[in-house]
Amino acid sequence: MIINTIDGVISALYIIAIFIIGLWAGIKHRAKNQHGGTAKEYFLAGKTLRWPMIGLALFATNISCVHLVSLAQSGFDSGLLNGNFEWMASFTLILLAVFFVPFYLKSGVSTLPDFLEKRYDRASRDWLAIVSVASAIIIHIAFSLLAGGIVLQTLFGVNMYYSVIAIAIITAIYTIVGGLTAVVVTESIQTVVLLAGALIMTVAAYHKMGGWQPMVNVLEQTHQMEKLSMMRPHGDASGLPWYAVFLGYPILGIWYWCADQTIVQRVLGAKDENHARVGSLFCGFIKILPVFIFVMPGLFAWALYQTGQLNIDTLKTLHDGKEVVNSKGIYTLMILQLVPKGLAGILVAALLSGLMSQISGALNSISTLVSYDMYQRWKPDAPDNKLVKVGKIAAGASLVFSLLLLPLLNQYESIFNGLNDIIAHIAPPITCVFLLGVFWKGASAKSAKITLYLGSLIGIFVFATGKLLPNSLIGHIPFMIMAFYLFCVCVLIQVTTSVIFPVQHTAASNVLYWRSPFESLRSPGWAGIGNYKFLSLALILIMSVLFWLFR
């Protein structure tokens, strides 16, 4: 089954519209500034971003084609379980808003590696810059391109690599020309389109199923009621029991939401601290939605398949003589079979929104990192126009390298699990040095450098061992638990080496840690419902109720 002409035209018009809007927003913003704008105008939108745009851009940069495709796949395979990655993010965004934002803005940094240099030393900055660029290429761009390629191939019958190359080039042009302003403006539009498309799919699946109760009846009849549970018991076949979620996710989440340049760059471009804080919390509230509009449709699809209302024959393959379902393509099958003509085009536009917003955000972050944390160190007196030029070249080169990684990453059975498996081995040392650096006065520069170097090497060794020797002890440890173990090792390394090599604070580093966690709450914030303290408490209460309901 291939998507019809009307929906294809809608999808094409959407791509053209985003391309034009992105170019227009970036060029218009630059025209307001002398000589086309400074480097900060290009990379950080001149620090003019307000909270709604920050929240929408954070969500759009996070939610990509990977999430639309793979969360539906996970809903089909294991129910609501992987929704934990979405809801736990809300707690991490509270940490970003309350504890990390003040330091990032107070230090006046353009990148997070720059922050590490102010808190620790230059070596820590260099290491994080390299890791951040690599992770942006692999996690934010390559995986998104892979998911997008699968979708486009299924829907349009076109070669996966040709289609993603075309989309990537279009996105790269307006991102490279317009900088962060173009990225944030297009991401705000794409978030709305993405959410609208996801809602259409959810309603379509719900309507086809006949409501919530018929789906529950199917789960009861097939003895699969655990698919509605997000808190699984010890020994669950998924390898993701409740304690793995609460121990492992914070390690991944703090790196992703509080210490990853691709995400935090939107916060660094905030007009002021209150806009940065409320924008982060706004994103936390939006993160409630993915379980219902990204994961739930996959669960409905599973129930529809069980009742014969969804044909998945095209996803069935033989593996070791047994028929298995390759559920990577379940979302596209739902578009083709459940959504009326015309509306399917909006669904495709939503998928493309996720793909384009993820690529644009990552490219802008890579260009910022390379310009400020690599090139400017080599050429400290480089003019702004040179920094911007180097950043554009870096973005283009990163895109090419991401495309070359697609065949390798396509070997993962589950895109979402493959993505988080890699993050679980990258995040622990970075999460460790950021947490201890912000909350512990005694974290020394030497200890941070040793922890980043040694922790990263241990993570690479563990990852390689698990893949080369899957039947070994390491190979049997679920990635979320492994992330927690690696984090504990990194904390031990940094605390021990901080004792051996005591901290010697500089004037800059001496103001970049909290004397007490309550110190972060001294800022009064806005009055009324927009106060960051009120919003943080409200978000905690809402998430606690939701976890209780789907325990």
Automatic annotation (TrEMBL):
Keywords, sorted A to Z: Membrane, Transmembrane, Transmembrane helix
CDD domains registered for this protein in UniProt: SLC5sbd_SGLT1-like
Gene3D superfamilies xrefs: Sodium/glucose cotransporter (1.20.1730.10)
GO molecular function: D-glucose:sodium symporter activity
Cellular component annotations (GO), alphabetically ordered: plasma membrane
Location of this chain's protein in the cell: Membrane
Topology in membrane: Multi-pass membrane protein
InterPro entries (alphabetical): Na/Glc_symporter_sf, Na/solute_symporter
PROSITE patterns in the record: NA_SOLUT_SYMP_3 (PS50283)
Family recorded in the similarity comment: Belongs to the sodium:solute symporter (SSF) (TC 2.A.21) family.
Name listed for the protein in its UniProt record: Sodium/glucose cotransporter 2
